[in-house]
Design a protein that fits this description.
Blueprint lengths: L2 H23 L2 H28 L3
Helix pairs in contact: 1-2
Length: 58
């Protein structure tokens, strides 16, 4: 795993937690931010995947 994959996964997981906490407390903004963070994390993971492919690590 490279740095982008690790950071992306962390952002994705953090976003899921933020979304669920927002649901639990009824905070729609926190839910939206959590979903946004999940999307950003998934994109960053894909960037890391692409870097691995270019470097020949896959």
């Amino acid at each position: 795993m490279n740095e982008d994959q690790i950071k992306g996964k962390a952002k994705d997981v953090g976003g899921k937690i933020q979304e669920k906490v927002g649901e639990a407390v009824g905070n729609r903004q926190a839910q939206r931010e959590g979903v946004s963070n999940q999307a950003e994390g998934k994109v960053q993971e894909k960037v890391g995947d692409a870097k691995d492919i270019v470097k020949g690590n896959r």
